[in-house]
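Input.
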Amino acid sequence: MDQTRNSSIALCFFLKKEKEKKRKWDHEEGLGLVMRRLGGIILSIILHLTASSVWAKPRGDHPLSNIAIHKASIALHDSAYIKAAPTILGLRGQNSEWVSVEYNFPNPSVNDWIGVFSPANISASICLPESPRVSPPLLCIAPIKYQFANYSNPKYQDTGKGLLKLQLINQREDFSFALFSGGLDNPKLVAVSNAISFANPKAPVYPRLAQGKSWDEMTVTWTSGYGINEAEPFVEWGPQVGDRKLSPAGTLTFSRNSMCGAPARTVGWRDPGFIHTSFLKNLWPNSMYKYRLGHRLFNGTIVWSQTYRFRASPYPGQDSLQRVVIFGDMGKAEADGSNEYSNYQPGSLNTTQQLINDLGNTDIVFHIGDICYANGYLSQWDQFTSQIEPISSTVPYMIASGNHERDWPGTGSFYGNTDSGENVV
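Output.
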């Protein structure tokens, strides 16, 4: 991006100089020279960018990749403890909630850290070797987030006592917190907390709207813990005032072996749950609609999401103002400050909040690649869809694949970098 920006500045500077010279030239001769020189510099820029793109190495390693979880060892300490409260989250239907984590370690160090694991059971029984010749590690699942023990406890190194406030989102499984010594390079598990969970971990969450194939169609996609053998997914929707209708949804998922390689199929793997998509058709132009996500269990019970709203598109050719937001490379970040080092992606929170603040002046969003920089850690997709939910549930959120969603050697991607690992093979 910096190379592109510098090249653009150079091009603009060149054009300015040529414009000044042009006043002194004969119109025909000067214009011809400008065009020849302009063509030359554009060709140089294209060749420069092409060469730099081919040979550039991926930058911006995910924070979770700094944890050598495959080297983790058990070093439980009798006097160490870690506990979390409350034990049940989302009792009022919330999909996110703050948790207090209290801990104590008699031999504290500035390198001690807290990992948030989900599912709560982090035993070796769930490890799968990547090769029959390689034994699985003791711990084979990276935490979904982490924070250093002294983050909000400046005296931790002296007292060994600390308290963290961490935000959790509904991700279909329970959670536990683990205290590690030895830093990120040589983690030693010294204490594990009690398990905590959401009241309904399988609830439908994080709807994402997209413009349908026709102007009068809206696509709704969401995530849940309900497979088709447990419940029937659908959307209840209709105008602000009037009758509601039901539209069925399809259900898809994928497995660990569908991933291209590590870390997506090793330490970064996490069950994605089920992804549901429904199509709301025959919308009236410019009309406001309400909708909510539903899962009808086979005992007749219906599990509902909260209610959301969107405005249908105008009729094609209609004289109307359409306000479009286009960007790429946003990423995600944690509101509680976890998972961050070297200012990895905290700016994404600012961008998201600005979009939310101006949502009343936005009709559609285009996120054109490098969406959340999960880089093979699948838990991050839930974190991202939760972060953008106020936007994606209200206006169409259109996406395109970037190198961090697409690239992997041997998969047909334009570049052979290992930026993703999440492609389905």
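The chain is about 20% helix and 30% strand.
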